[in-house]
Amino acid sequence: MTSEITLFVNPTAGGGRGARAARTAAAALRDAGFHVGTVTGDGPEDALSRARSAVEEGTGALIAVGGDGMANLALQAVVGTGTPFGLVAAGTGNDFARALGMPLREPATSGRMIADALKSGRSRDVDLGRIGDRWFGAVLASGFDSRVNDRGNRMRAPLGRFKYDVAMVAELAAFRPLPYRITLDGGAVREVEATLVAVGNGPSYGGGMRICPGADLTDGLFDVTVVGECSRATLLRVFPRVYKGTHVDHPVVTVMRAASVELAAEDVTGYADGEYVGPLPLTATCVPGAVRVVGP
């Protein structure tokens, strides 16, 4: 393996933690004998173009430094190339890093782990979800949670993540269960009234909410969590349990497994790894061993 590797950095991740984490991780990698280049960009499209260029030019690994958005962008650059992917978690959510077992906000430790894996040739292939030509590592969200995202993204104030708390309260007051059509592995269409439907390649989203607690990055299947029709009072009781994953024991929650999932519902958008994908209907396919990961 070449000793030339690339850090793919979101310097603004985590309120500036991304830039600091990149410097720390780069120092750890250089101490291990690697030559480290850095790629950023003027917006996501430019950043992705630069990352793809680094991969095409033969970088030994592409290491994302940031949160789930940066990890997601890096995946678009490495899938199908054989270039190893590494992740230094420095964002707010860091759910794909959780799924991979990477340390959170410990860039020196992450850098040393990645360096050790690269030097020893230790890697593993993990599954990814695919929606058209778009890839994701953690969860495709739709329903109540995606509507909170929609509302939060439209709000100019308050700033930061607090606006999503405000958006959740506002959306909860207005929310009604939605008629979904769910198709698993090309089978019969299931028509259900649902509060939300989450398609998990990994277990969590939203910064540690274990919406699909049994999801496994290496089994070739999604876990599909359906929170059925319920009152606002029930939702308020059930939703806090998502941090431990015990919500799946509630009668209103159903978990299914499939390699392909089609979701259809009116006026509902999908977010994958926290990033906007588009309106339903959407079809997600689990692709086994889609990316080679270096780390633990």
From TrEMBL:
Keywords: ATP-binding, Kinase, Lipid biosynthesis, Lipid metabolism, Magnesium, Metal-binding, Nucleotide-binding, Phospholipid biosynthesis, Phospholipid metabolism, Transferase
Limits of the DAGKc domain: 1-135
Family matches, as PROSITE patterns: DAGK
Cofactor list: Mg(2+)
InterPro entries: ATP-NAD_kinase_N, Diacylglycerol/lipid_kinase, Diacylglycerol_kinase_cat_dom, Lipid_Phosphate_FormReg, NAD/diacylglycerol_kinase_sf, YegS/DAGK_C
Signal peptide: none
Record's keyword annotation contains Metal-binding: yes
Record keyword Mitochondrion present: no
GO molecular function, one term: kinase activity
Family in the record: Belongs to the diacylglycerol/lipid kinase family.
Name of the molecule in the record: Diacylglycerol kinase
